[in-house]
Amino acid sequence: MKVLYVCTELYPLLKTGGLADVGAALPAALQAAGCHVRLLLPAFASIAAGVRADAPALRLPARAGPDVLRTLETPPMLVPGHVIESGQPVYLLDAPALYQRDGGPYQDAAGQEWSDNAARFALLGWAAAALGQGADPHWQPDVVHAHDWHAGLAPLYLKLLAGTGPVTPSVFTVHNLAFQGLFSASSCAALGVPESLFNIDGVEYHGLLSFMKAGLQFADAITTVSPRYAQEILTPEQGCGLDGALRARRERISGILNGVDYAIWNPATDPLLNAHFDGQCISGKARVKRDLQRLLGLEERPQALLFAAVTRLSEQKGLHLVPAMLPELVERGGQLAILGSGDPAIEGALREAMACHPGQAALRTGYDEALAHCIIAAADVILVPSRFEPCGLTQLYGLRYGTLPLVHAVGGLADTVTDCSLEAIDDGSASGFVFHDFSASGLLGAVRRAFALRRRPADWSAVQRHAMQQRFDWQQPAQAYRSLYQSLLGTALAHGSLVSS
Ligand code: ADP
Ligand code: GLC
Fold it and tell me: pTM above the 0.85 mark?
């Protein structure tokens, strides 16, 4: 089974969030499950630097498709190669005018979306479709697996390119429904999206072209990254305006929980830590905690209950609830360490609140992989109070490092953390703290319960041991994706109506 895995981020070459961690780990797990996987990635500078080409570049078919295929001075090329560090086979989508620039993959250095994002990511979808329909004479995938809105046009372009002929089936995975890739209706023409598809049953979203909706409408199967989120997005509360479209395709939707790459996230071997530990011998955790307290300018109090968060600072992540509960957290003898980057308003509010508690609260901004590992290892509690969370990875990392997750009961957080209720402590299933009311007082209630458990050291240790024993390997999810791919073989129908339009 040959699978083309289409995404925009790949750890450690380019990462803005969990999409990169998944892009590195899932293809490898699929490979171990017997699939032959090739990644398709835009040749962003940091990605291109980590890839070695090993075959001549391929031209993309320029009939139909986005105008950018014909208007760029240097035509976009597909470069077959492999990731130097992992050996993972990839295709780089090389179009320097679109992908080689300073700033982030989606936004410029000032945080503004790149104005040509429609063309940049339409080209990614087009390249995926071209490979799906045989652009590389040496390798044609059986399935195209597109991730998030950036690759959302791939399923649609596949059907357009196939015309009335056989079409390679596609899977579209929603990592985050909140980011939809919305562009003006007028961009349809330049992207080769037929006008006849610009309606409520097609790619139209409140008068705009939605890449996300294109993926949802035209993929042969849709997945999300946890079973709970797969249910939640069918509701108006969590459906981001797409719940109707999703409900209409509900029989095609499934939730497959993300896994963890324990070769990277393992406190017994993590090269980013000064000391190591595991469930049998936890003493190294105290040293990591002391070192972190020193590094961040927190008082070196071994007994202080250290709460932490490693996160994008966005409305999604719920960090705006923190300032209101911080005074009580500190009054109870706790400490707080946050590593985050993103929304300046959330950052400003956190900075102001945390500055009132010198020695007890520390905020670090920016993206720092090494510090992320140290914080997750050192803390006693990892906070993930997200408003919504498709899967969430830091709570899973926290479990492995004996850092009990404190989470809002949504999405993948609800699927992976069991609250320390008396029953759950009693039957040995408790692994963290779960709150239901998304408010500062809801969060504070869970914080209080964390302090209460800490005053029962035997119970705390039992919960911590159980948390550390949990395994969210990639093996099972990879098998689930493989079965899904298999179920699609030979079933994808050419979409004749797309061709006539
Ligand atoms: P999302 O993808 O929504 O941001 P996830 O929990 O799935 O959330 O994944 C976040 C990933 O990004 C984790 O690997 C986490 O450790 C990492 N991360 C988030 N913020 C930072 C940061 N400021 N510095 C380093 N790593 C970060
Ligand atoms: C998204 C989601 C996050 C998920 C990650 C990887 O960024 O916000 O919940 O863990 O993708 O699938």
Answer: yes
